[in-house]
Amino acid sequence: MNKHKENNSENPPALHIDNLSVYYGQTLAIEGVCLDVRDHEYLGIIGPNGGGKSTLLKAILGLIPITGGKIQIYGKEGGSTEVIGYVPQFSSVDKKFPITLFEVVLTGRLKKGLSPFYRYSEKDKQITNELLKRVGISHLAKRQISQLSGGEFQRMLIARALAINPKILLLDEPTASVDASSREQIYSLLSELNKDMTIILVTHDLLAISSQVHSLACLNERLVYHGEPEINQHIVNHLYGCPVDLIAHGVPHRVLHEHEEGC
């Protein structure tokens, strides 16, 4: 595992979120979130299901309307999302669609406002081949996506997100549907990509947090914590409402101190 890279506070902010609130109708999703993410930072976001993690990513991408507050990307409000690559949750992508891995990554080169009859250029195809090599799946270029393993599928989605040469990469649970070996490969890839871009990773993989990311944000409708990636009992109790037992290599593994309080 890589050691934490020192965060340079002199870098300009890649992302500035001020008092952000999002409601779905009358239902609160997130409220009062304030968060700064520096350029080339590697931020992990954790929290319970329904705590607003995916909502936060969608708000940053402009995919959903915000109720209050503001989001700035490299100092610009309500725009500049063309510098953001996005890797959605595994479950949101149809693996049965008849398309090859190469073709999926190639679609990442499509730009907004293009004709449905757009013809990909040789440069588009060259960039796609380079991206497949970068994420280690060039040998699978002609394979149907239905034939890919979970780890191969996730690396395909990462390659597609990289097709626009983003400055920020957002990932929503990229290791949720992969085995341990693929998980390590994905984390190794993200560590390399972080040399060139800012990474914001939503995950439930608490065991990987402290060894992978530079900083940690804990979200449960509101931002419970933002800072160093060490997790203590107080933070987790506040975030989840009760202590958490983590599972490592199939064995219950408590990384937090024992407690006597009930849930």
Can you walk me through this structure?
- By secondary structure, the chain is of the alpha/beta class.
- The chain has one domain: P-loop containing nucleotide triphosphate hydrolases (Rossmann fold, 3-Layer(aba) Sandwich).
- It is built from seven helices and twelve strands.
- Helix 5 links the parallel strand 7 and strand 8.
- The protein starts with 12 loop residues before the first strand and ends in a 10-residue tail after the last strand.
List the helices and strands and how they pair.
Blueprint: E1 13-24, E2 27-38, E3 42-46, H1 53-61, E4 68-73, E5 76-77, E6 84-87, H2 101-107, H3 122-134, H4 150-161, E7 168-172, H5 180-193, E8 198-202, H6 206-212, E9 215-220, E10 222-227, H7 233-240, E11 246-248, E12 251-253
Parallel strand pairs: 3-8, 3-9, 6-7, 7-8
Antiparallel strand pairs: 1-2, 1-4, 4-5, 9-10, 11-12
Percent of residues in beta strands = 25-35%
What global shape is seen? globular
Low-confidence stretches: 1-8, 246-263
Rounded mean pLDDT is 83
Our measurement of the CA-to-CA distance between the termini, rounded to an integer number of angstroms, reads: 33 Å
What is the CATH architecture term? 3-Layer(aba) Sandwich
What's the main sheet like?
6 strands, mixed
How many DSSP H or I helices?
7
Helix content: 25-40%
Find the CATH topology: Rossmann fold
Secondary-structure element order, N to C: EEEHEEEHHHEHEHEEHEE
Strand order of the largest sheet: 6-7-8-3-9-10
Class per helix and strand makeup: alpha/beta
Query: How many β-strand stretches?
Result: 12
Q: How large, in whole angstroms, is the Cα Rg?
A: 19 Å
What CATH first level would be assigned? Alpha Beta
Estimate nothing, just give the exact number of structural domains: 1
CATH H level, superfamily name: P-loop containing nucleotide triphosphate hydrolases
